[in-house]
Amino acid sequence: MVELVRFQEHRGLRIVRGEMQYVWDDKGNRYLDAHTGHGVAFLGHSNPRIVEALCGQASRIMTLTPAFTSELEEELSERLSQIAPRGLDSVFFQNSGAEAVEAALKLAWAYTGRNRIVAFKNSFHGRTHGALSLTWNPKYRKGFPLMGEVVFTEYNAPHEELEKVIDDSVAAVVVEPVQGEGGIVPAKPEFLQSLRKLTREAGALLVLDEIQAGFGRTGHTWAHEPTGIGPDILLAGKSVGGGFPVSLIFTRPEIAESLKGGRHGSTFAASPLAQAAVLGALRVFAEDHVPERVQEGSRELGDLLEDRVSGTRPVRSTRLAGYMVGVELRFPPGKAIRCLQTRGVLALKAGATVVRFLPPYMITSDDRHAIAGGLRECLCGEYGC
Q: Does residue 42 lie in a domain region?
């Protein structure tokens, strides 16, 4: 029998069903999913409106190249225009976040005619060749020949430090407005504002990787919005397809022109199924007022974590950006994550010592109590509070 290769440690659960914020194992146990496939199921598992969109499209046509138009495109274009960052009026599809990063690199190189890229320590942008070259963690990079012209500097560095690395040799600066894998670390507004000023002066592109942070998860349509800046390229993924594998690249029309004429393409990107999934996700996003619900729920979750775990002996700090939640411990989080699973809450790791929660937008007050209360029980029971 062929063995299915796993690149991550198995959690010991066989999941058989999911419905919105919950999943069930083969023994009938229910779990609150605050793992959500590294944030993919932000709109819930098998959200009925997204399932309806996918099933309806699958019964008509599933495969169609961009050489042909589909019946979805007019509504899709209109709805995308409602969420597109200002000035980024061109959008194209890819199949994953890492592919979106690869496409952004090609756009930057083609548009500027330069090679050098600036990225940041503790960043994560994916595991394909170009994306991995921008990813900081040595355990992912070791043993692979990566792109040479990538300069890493400190995340949230002051303006005077950024001036030393952003000059007219730089094609693009690629940055996450909230570092997810790096430990749930939000960018300071002045940091992103400095990046915008310096890239504009140098003629470089500012690429915001919002693959995990974007599409409502922080309580804003896009995580960078409160800073007042505008990127040249914005990358969205994970939740934008409601669980279907898809990513989006928003950019300015003149930048998009750089890759026309066959310089970029993808067999499955922008298929009718992908378009239907994004269209279903956009309907949910608008009709359920997703960012507003995240803002409201995040306030309660933050208060609960402050009350239940902040100041306890095992906890260094608690960080929230909407429903990107990190609780930094004084030790690796593996035991706490396994303990939470026994209490019906699925969480995941970020950085070296952070328990990360990425729940769906529709979690209830009871669910938020389950997260905070379960974490307290696990930490205090194992380490004492």
A: no
- Judged against a pLDDT cut of 80, whether residue 7 lies above it is answered with no
The amino acid that residue 293 corresponds to is R
Looking at the structure of the chain, the number of domains it has is: 2
Q: How confident is the model at residue 120 (pLDDT cuts 50, 70, 90)?
A: very high
Answer whether residue 225 is part of any domain: yes
Do 382 and 336 form a contact (C-beta atoms < 8 A)?
A: yes
Q: What is the pLDDT of residues 200-247, one digit of tens each?
A: 999 999 999 999 999 999 999 999 999 999 999 999 999 999 999 999
Token couple for 211:
């693959």
In a domain, 100, yes or no: yes
Contact 383, 329 (CB under 8 A): no
Query: Using the 8-state DSSP alphabet, how is residue 240 labeled?
Result: G
Give mean pLDDT, residues 285-302.
Answer: 98
Helices (H), the chain: 36-39, 48-58, 73-83, 97-112, 129-133, 138-141, 159-162, 189-202, 253-256, 272-287, 290-308, 334-342, 365-383
Asked whether residue 21 falls in the same domain as residue 155, the answer is: no
Residue 324 has pLDDT above 80, yes or no: yes
CA neighbor of 114 nearest in space, from 171, 67, 168: 171
Range of the domain at 99: 48-287
Q: Are residues 204 and 334 in the same domain?
A: no
Distance CA(165)–CA(198), nearest Å, equals 10
Q: Are residues 241 and 314 in the same domain?
A: no
Q: How far apart are CA 10 and CA 361, in angstroms?
A: 26
Is the C-alpha dihedral spanning 340, 344, 345, 351 positive or negative?
Answer: positive
**What number is the average pLDDT over the span 1-26?**
90
- Rounded Cα distance between 316 and 339, Å, is 19
Four-point Cα dihedral 129, 221, 268, 18, nearest 10 = 100
Taking the C-alpha atoms of residue 6 and residue 355, their distance in angstroms, rounded to an integer, is 22
Residue 198, both tokens: 């310096």
Binning pLDDT at 50, 70 and 90, where does residue 260 land?
A: confident
Domain final position from 261, 287, 313: 287
- Decide: helix, strand or coil at residue 13: coil
